[in-house]
Amino acid sequence: MDVDLDYDWGCDNDKVKVKGGSSGQSYDSSSTIKASMCGSEKAFSLTSTKDRIWIRFKSNGYSNRRGFVAGYVLYNDTTTGKSSSSGSSGSPVAGIVVAIVVFAVVAL
């Protein structure tokens, strides 16, 4: 992920937050994987073994910044045969599945 959002103390205006949980859980009841981010963050990666990942984006729309980019690679857990987002054990499912999501913050 790469983040370039409006910065404010506490990330109340523009922010991106990543949470993960199991099937049947909602965003609100899931665990935080990456706390709220705002301002400029250097590119980073994270690994999760959760069944679901939520990326929540909030903007107040008052500034023009680049936004954020997110991508993922899905791996197959060789011990259970189930898909997992963990890259530390397992092999790619049908090659590598990569998705890139780009959100830009634009003031109107």
Compact description:
With 108 residues, the protein is mainly β. It contains no helices and ten strands. The protein has strands at residues 2-4, 15-21, 31-37, 40-41, 52-58, 65-73, 75-76, 83-84, 91-92, 98-105.
Give the key terms:
108 residues; 0% helix; globular; mainly beta; 10 strands; four-stranded antiparallel sheet
Task: Give a written overview of the molecule.
- The chain is mainly beta.
- The protein contains no helices and 10 strands.
- Strands 4-1-6-10 form a 4-stranded antiparallel beta sheet, with no helix packed on it. A 3-stranded antiparallel beta sheet has the order 3-2-5, with no helix packed on it.
- Strand 7 and strand 8 form a beta hairpin.
Mean model confidence by pLDDT: 76
- Ranges where pLDDT stays below 50 over 5 or more residues in a row are 84-99
Rough shape? globular
Q: Please identify the structural class as seen in this structure.
A: mainly beta
Strand order of the largest sheet: 4-1-6-10
Number of helices: 0
Spell the H/E element sequence: EEEEEEEEEE
- Total strands: the figure is 10
Residues in β-strands, percent: over 45%
Largest sheet features: 4 strands, antiparallel
Distance between the termini: 25 Å
What is Rg?
Answer: 15 Å
Helix content: under 10%
